[in-house]
Amino acid sequence: MNDNAKRMAAAAAVEMVDEGMRLGIGTGSTAEQFIILLGQRVQAGLSVIGVPTSDRSAALCHELGIALTTLDETPTLDLAVDGTDEFDPALNLIKGGGGALLREKIVAGSANRLVVIADASKQVAVLGAFPLPVEIIPMARQPIAQRLAALGATVTLRTNPAGAPFRTDEGHWILDGDFGPAISDPAGLARDLSSWPGVVEHGLFCGMAECVLLGTEDQVTIVTT
Ligand code: 5RP
């Protein structure tokens, strides 16, 4: 579903990569297309170095011969490329459907530019139809679930296929807060969530994306604010 559109967006992002760049490398099925196409350029001689946003993106990079580094060694990145679960006209994002929001936000925040790659299913007028991932310390589950519910969200603890709590790469849990398409003040909600003890990070990325490369079957549109 939408695979070609994802590949089109990913290909446009790969064209933005120049020799010697320090890259942030995203997570998810769209970012995987980017990694695969980047791997082809690396195999053809391009030299870049990347910080992956998840263990699974790191594994794919290793497989394809893309050199990896850490933010300890390379604290500033030239360009981060990542997917999204939703974006609004102001290019606020909901991310974290794949559970990698914490590393994704750290990497995006360390990059001079964040370019988002997406298909049309991710474009919304108002954020919130996609449940907002909130990464938490396990002992804070109930207080944070209550606070999210008080803001009008239906809250679910994310689980793995065995029914146990899903653990992020950093060992935390995720509460998914379903607000419906009604997050009218993403920056305000982001500030609230960040102030709650026990919230490690949340999936609202406000004011971070430079543009969205929006792929369709046969073309890519650059969406800016
Ligand atoms: C992972 C993410 C992904 O970028 C987001 O879920 C989009 O994934 P996909 O490209 O598979 O639709 O935020 O944490």
State the gist of this model.
The chain has 225 residues and is of the alpha/beta class. The chain has helices at residues 3-15, 29-43, 55-64, 101-109, 141-150, 186-194, and strands at 22-25, 49-52, 79-82, 86-87, 93-94, 114-119, 132-136, 154-157, 173-178, 199-202, 204-205, 211-215, 220-223.
CATH names the topology of the largest domain as Rossmann fold
Beta-strand percentage range: 15-25%
Under the CATH scheme, the architecture of the largest domain is: 3-Layer(aba) Sandwich
What binds here, in terms of ligands, is: ribulose-5-phosphate
CATH class of the largest domain: Alpha Beta
Number of strands: 13
So what's the overall shape? globular
- Unreliably modeled segments: none
Descriptors:
binds ribulose-5-phosphate, alpha/beta, globular, four-stranded antiparallel beta sheet, Rossmann fold, 225 residues, 6 helices, Alpha-Beta Plaits, 2 domains
